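Schema walkthrough. Field components (list of strings):
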Amino acid sequence: MPALPFPLPEIPATVPTEAYLILSGILFALGCTGVILRKSALTIFMSIELMLNAVNLSFVAFARQLGQFDGQIFVFFVMAVAAAEVAVGLAIIIDIFRSRCTADIDDVSWLKG
Amino acid sequence: MELLVFLGVAALSVASALMMIAQRNAMYSALFLVLNFFCLAVFYVLMGAYFLAVVQVAVYAGAIMVLMLFVIMLLNVAQPEPSDRRLGVFRPFGVIAAFILLAELVAVGARYGAPPEAQATGATTAAVTATPLARPTIPPAATPIADHVGAADVGHTQQLAAVLFSRYLFPFEVTSVLLLVAILGATILARKRPEYEDVAGVSVRIK
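Field assembly_structure (string):
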């Protein structure tokens, strides 16, 4: 087998924390893009869920890095808050849909100054 | 091997997130988001957070997304929405802002292992190895647990519960109150509004 012109990068035994952080950043940015660009309230909600999950991923990555459980427990609380947020938010969307027959956030701009 | 799984699932998760924000049909977006949640559960398994992986599938992919799909079908917005006219001419600026955010987050994440931080993390790993392993008792604050990376952790969920129900007992109870309030709020918001009678007995429609 001929020698490679460059040394092969050393493959780490486990996935480094930076990889998880970068992936979390990518997912968070994608969720943020969804919130900015989409106009359906439901899709914006799903993008927010995506951002919450990206943050959860970095919480767990840091918990592994530091060898503590606190990060994982924070993920529990984030999940509970996300569940509450989804319940109330979907109820608000349903209520708006009943009164305005739309789930488009551009049509719900009563507060626009 | 672990790295291969990570790379494959990471690509899948980024692809599903992209598809989620690119889909016009809210139903397909929701299904791609479910795929993304499963990818995150795989990451939790890779990092040794087995219980969180189960909770991720059960709560997120199970409960929350079912609720969301139910609302999508209830609102009958599953048909493709017309072309996004939102933001209009400012639309590229939104993309640019998102890319700036992406660059910042990736830069911060990639710098995490850089030399200035390496000292701090090295000290932490030294502290991890210096402490005795796997105690079933409640670890006090800032005490590292056993090195669980890749190890078979039988007591992992047990240890998690020990921390959750001791040091984080009060936030746990507050969470229950939060969920109760959320249930009440969702019920009151989403129920059918009848004609309300005000104090004077005049029937008014509250919008």
